[in-house]
Design brief:
- This protein has 574 residues and is α+β, with helices and mostly antiparallel strands.
- Helix content is 32%, strand content 23%.
- It is built from 15 helices and 21 strands.
- It has helices spanning 17-26, 49-62, 101-109, 151-165, 180-187, 190-207, 233-246, 250-266, 307-323, 329-343, 372-378, 421-439, 468-475, 499-508, 535-539; strands at 2-6, 11-14, 36-44, 68-73, 76-81, 84-93, 122-129, 137-145, 226-232, 270-277, 294-301, 351-354, 383-388, 397-403, 408-414, 459-461, 464-466, 479-484, 487-492, 521-525, 543-547.
- A 7-stranded mixed sheet has the order 11-10-12-14-15-9-13, sandwiched between helices. It has a 5-stranded mixed sheet with strand order 1-6-7-8-3, sandwiched between helices.
- Strand 18 (479-484) and strand 19 form a beta hairpin.
- Helix 8 (250-266) crosses helix 12 (421-439).
- The two termini are 45 Å apart.
Length: 574
């Protein structure tokens, strides 16, 4: 059926920071499940389908983001808001009463990519189930690209659809407030640009020191990426007790447990990661429907003496990071690249923490602390599921809190190049156990130590745990790296290179080598010794050039080189 919609403006304008951030990764894969947000909502089955369809048209008309296309003008991406039009909404009958039918339909609806330049960013269908046991059931199924909404927006749309279907007039709905074109004006104002600059300064300071990667070497036998979920009533009850004792929110408590467990696993004394920020701090954005979420960059010191101390640190670090999570996405990459170039190791979002449930559990703080005996009694109810990952994410571990009240549902997508499903399950059980232990009172935390089972030689260089073998992979078959005091020196028999081109080639090979860093100094030799592992023999070779390879006053990291240091068969493991 055709559903009409009409908004109040038709206008082009610049992208918001959130839109630009999403566009940087979603444009080529706009039908990937990770690039869309499903809004699946059951309503009263006695309501006529026409009224349900009308409700869909009303919410599209209310929110500019649902009527927006994305074009290029003079080389820059812009948003163009449509005023009115029609959307085809298919109506399906669920004759078999399949409870999974709406979810299956949502996946079918994004089988083809969204054409962001011409198509509405929303697809919709209505599912009727006249023979449901508890009476007729109607379900609204919408699949909306991340360019148009974030998870918080999906909650708002569900509320509005419910009100409209139940008979509320559009005039009775809350004012939607700011629209994306309005938000873009604010962000590009002098005040907004100063806020963005302050955020970039914050990012630069967090990237300047401490480990930037998870010290996890690739598996000898990589497997499929896996998605695991722990569902733990005991952990949720434990969290209520910790929240009551520390006066810190659920999100910080779960985050602290995850970070502590990762510290034990990697032996890192601090960790840097991305946490998705909803960026809904202003009352003017409370009803905003659009892509606001961006990365908040958080560093935690994992040498905290106790769990409560780490929880408090997580709370403080989250608040500071959230204040600096609105910025020009294009401007943050030069900051990251500058650090990458200077330090010889880059921040690549190895792990991400996303508290999705914060958007749908607004009354978390009203939970009463559970008696300790209930925590112990609930332990046998823990469930863990695993399945192949729905999509390949460019991270090692992606944690999502799906629920924190009643049951803790913690979902992890794990990259099969670095983690087996068994390892991830063990990590999830350790998170649960730490929360249960801390339910009884503050728990001492041991200082992270390199894992006893770790194989081979490891160095600590520039705050990072480094495998010499991984560094040698960067240099290829014509080079070797050696420690000279605290300095990592790369010797290369590549007379065709300069220290700068050798450094750029090393940087280009780093992406999936989290236990490598580039040399601090490069020595380019005319020839290689017979034994590449003989430092004395390298020192007898004729030196052609020597330097740190870092950019001078007039060199920029954007001057990427296509040079590769490999002369035989090794390729970057991407």
């Amino acid at each position: 059926m055709r559903v009409s919609y009409r908004g109040s403006r038709r206008e082009p304008g610049p992208l918001t920071f959130g839109q630009a951030n999403v566009l940087s990764w979603v444009s080529q894969d706009s039908n990937e499940w990770s690039a869309v947000i499903p809004v699946i909502h059951a309503v009263d089955g006695s309501v006529p389908v026409d009224r349900v369809a009308e409700a869909i048209g009303v919410v599209i008309g209310r929110h500019d983001s649902l009527r927006t296309n994305y074009l290029r003008q003079s080389g820059e991406a812009i948003q163009v808001v449509r005023e009115a039009g029609e959307l085809i909404v298919d109506v399906h009958e669920n004759f078999d009463g399949d409870a999974q039918f709406p979810a299956k339909l949502a996946r079918q609806m994004c089988a083809t990519p969204f054409e962001l330049t011409a198509e509405l960013p929303v697809r919709a269908a209505i599912v009727t189930e006249p023979g449901a046991q508890d009476g007729p059931r109607t379900t609204i199924v919408m699949v909306i690209t991340h360019m148009a909404i974030d998870v918080g927006s999906g909650v708002i749309l569900t509320e509005e659809l419910t009100d409209l279907v139940e008979g509320k007039s559009p005039a009775d709905l809350p004012d939607p407030g700011l629209q994306p074109l309005d938000q873009a004006q604010i962000e590009l104002s002098p005040v907004g640009l100063r806020r963005s600059q302050n955020s970039l300064k914050y990012w630069r300071s967090r990237l300047a020191q401490g480990p930037l990667r998870l010290a996890v070497p690739p598996l000898d036998e990589p497997g499929e990426s896996q998605q695991l979920r722990i569902t733990s009533p005991a952990a949720a009850l434990a969290v209520t007790r910790i929240v009551d004792r520390t006066k810190v929110g659920h999100s910080s408590v779960v985050l602290a447990a995850v970070a502590a467990v990762l510290g034990r696993y990697t032996g890192e004394e601090s960790t840097l990661f991305a946490s998705l920020s909803a960026n809904r701090f202003s009352s003017t954005l409370s009803r905003y429907v659009g892509a606001l979420a961006q990365d908040a960059l958080i560093r935690l010191d994992l040498t905290a003496p106790s769990f409560d101390a780490l929880v408090e640190q997580a709370r403080s670090a989250q608040l500071t990071a959230l204040k600096h999570s609105q910025f020009d996405a294009k401007a943050v990459w030069p900051v990251i690249d500058e650090t990458f170039d200077r330090r010889g190791v880059g921040f690549t979002r190895d792990w991400v923490f996303n508290d999705v449930a914060a958007n749908i559990e607004p009354d978390r703080q009203n939970n009463e602390p559970a008696p300790l005996e209930l925590v112990d009694r609930a332990r046998p109810e823990t469930r863990i599921s695993r399945k192949p990952a729905e999509s390949e994410l460019p991270v090692m571990l992606f944690f999502q809190v799906l629920r924190a009240c009643g049951e803790l549902e913690l979902d992890v997508t794990a990259n099969g190049q670095f983690f087996t499903a068994d390892t991830v399950e063990r990590l999830l059980r350790e998170v649960e156990q730490l929360l249960i232990d801390a339910a009884a009172g503050d728990t001492a935390l041991a200082r992270p130590e390199p894992p006893a089972a770790r194989r081979g030689t490891w160095w600590r260089i520039a705050d990072c745990q480094v495998q010499p073998t991984a560094v040698n992979e960067l240099l290829g078959s014509a080079g070797r790296a050696f420690l000279d005091g605290d300095e990592l020196v790369g010797h290369l028999a590549r007379p065709d290179l300069t220290p700068r081109s050798a450094h750029l080639a090393s940087l280009a090979a780093l992406r999936w080598r989290p236990t490598a860093v580039t040399p601090a100094r490069y020595i380019i030799c005319a020839t290689a010794p017979d034994d590449l592992d003989d430092l004395a023999a390298w020192r007898r070779q004729r030196v052609i050039a020597e330097g740190d390879g870092r950019p001078g006053l007039h060199e920029a990291f954007a001057d990427h080189s296509s040079t590769t240091l490999e002369t035989e068969t090794h390729q970057d493991n991407q």
